[in-house]
TrEMBL record:
Pfam families: UPF0227. InterPro entries: AB_hydrolase_fold, UPF0227/Esterase_YqiA. This is Esterase.
Length: 186
């Protein structure tokens, strides 16, 4: 079973989430796909993801993209699951500080807006870890062409995790289709 965790202001309609769904369906494993639309509040998102993990019949493998990679890192510490982290956000409480007070909208449903507040930031800071726990359970995948997040921050933070750094690409991780099989075997 795979639990896909989307990034900041994204949804289950994200390209990687849908690519994973198609990959699983082509192998008659569509029932293994879970990709919830997460609330914008980090504490609520973690509560929803924790509930899905605890209700699962078998421990899911996490795939977290961007902010979803940060959430997956927290969940690995809590549940000792395996996770593939795709261009993950490192210390998003620092990264997102400049957007406090701004109106945000969902990439896939532009009518869904909210104001990013200090409470959002405080919840991210509360979830952060000085260093990731159980790094042996993490497969870090980065494209160094990511202009949204600096890939070098992730290689340093996840230094004890399994790492693959690809040349070029972007924040959306252009090689996702090519690495699903590897993620499945991890």
């Amino acid at each position: 079973m795979f639990l896909y965790i989307h990034g900041f202001n994204s949804s289950s309609q994200a390209g990687k989430a849908q690519e994973l769904k198609r990959w699983l369906e082509a192998r008659h494993r569509g029932h293994e796909w879970i990709a919830p639309d997460l609330p914008d509040r980090p504490a609520q998102a973690i509560a929803l993801l924790s509930e899905l993990i605890e209700r699962a019949e078998t421990p899911p493998k996490l795939i977290g993209s961007s902010l979803g990679g940060f959430y997956a890192t927290h969940l690995v510490a809590q549940y000792k699951l395996k996770a593939a982290l795709i261009n993950p956000a490192v210390h998003p409480g620092l990264l997102l500080r400049p957007v406090v007070g701004t109106v945000q909208k969902n990439w896939h449903e532009e009518s869904q807006t909210y104001t990013f507040t200090q409470d959002h930031l405080d919840e991210l800071i509360a979830l952060d870890q000085l260093s990731p726990q159980h790094p042996q359970n993490m497969l870090l995948m980065l494209e160094n062409g990511d202009k949204t997040l600096d890939w070098r921050d992730a290689t340093g933070y996840y230094r004890d995790a399994h790492q693959l750094v690809f040349q070029g690409g972007n924040h959306g991780f252009t090689r996702f289709r090519d690495v699903i099989d590897l993620i499945d075997r991890f």
